[in-house]
Amino acid sequence: MQRNTLVSAAAAVVLALGGPVAAAATATADTAKTVPAATAARADVTAEAAAAAALKANPGVIESLDRDGSVWHVDVISKDGTRSELEVDSASGGVTKENQDDEQQADDYAGLLAAKVTAEQAMKAAVAAHPGKVWSVQWDDDDDNNGRAAYWNVEVKTTDGKTQNVHVDTATAKVLSSNSDDNDDGN
């Protein structure tokens, strides 16, 4: 009985702290008996959850998102053209603002702000085409696109351990092309 009370108390602490790991702590009582409460606290924040947390903390449009060790780096552009660099902790989902560039103007990001397909939708399209976990997403409208329109570049770590680079159309969310990084060691 005392163990159930301790497990319930630990689950309550995790739930009180909130964030993306809260869902992992809502296991049934039977599961809570067999899985230590510390395991729930080690839940990994996905790219999709990092995007949602960043946009909640700083509304706008995601320009890029990528995983670097224990953090997600997320660049968000507000409707007025302000660019904010955020970090989302991959364990807790906590968001910190690292930098904000107020010098940018909305017209510098006109294509991104007008795109019909968001980074979040591009991630869904890429994972639908290549099941796995999103590792990065980036708006690509560089001059070296060989005359092609802008697209979303999504990097997916597939279930077979490869890295798949997927280009997603910014108007239709259709996969334009993809290629596999055959030299990936699965890390």
Summarize the structure.
This protein is an alpha+beta fold. Helix content is 29%, strand content 32%.
If you had to describe this structure to a student in words, what would you say it looks like?
The protein is an alpha+beta fold. The chain has helices spanning 2-17, 29-34, 37-41, 47-57, 110-114, 119-129; strands spanning 61-68, 71-77, 83-89, 95-101, 132-140, 151-158, 163-169, 175-181. The chain has an 8-stranded antiparallel beta sheet with strand order 4-3-2-1-5-6-7-8, covered by helices on one side. A hairpin with a 2-residue loop joins strand 1 and strand 2. It starts with a helix and ends in a 6-residue tail after the last strand.
List the helices and strands and how they pair.
Elements: H1 2-17, H2 29-34, H3 37-41, H4 47-57, E1 61-68, E2 71-77, E3 83-89, E4 95-101, H5 110-114, H6 119-129, E5 132-140, E6 151-158, E7 163-169, E8 175-181
Antiparallel strand pairs: 1-2, 1-5, 2-3, 3-4, 5-6, 6-7, 7-8
The number of distinct β-strands equals 8
Mean pLDDT: 78
The outline comes out as globular
First CA to last CA: what distance?
Answer: 42 Å
Helices, by number, come to 6
Low-confidence stretches: 1-42
Query: How much helix, percentage-wise, in residues?
Result: 25-40%
Tell me the radius of gyration. 19 Å
Q: Give the biggest beta sheet.
A: 8 strands, antiparallel
Strands ordered across the widest β-sheet: 4-3-2-1-5-6-7-8
Q: H/E element string?
A: HHHHEEEEHHEEEE
In terms of DSSP E residues, the strand content is: 25-35%
Class based on secondary structure composition and strand pairing: alpha+beta
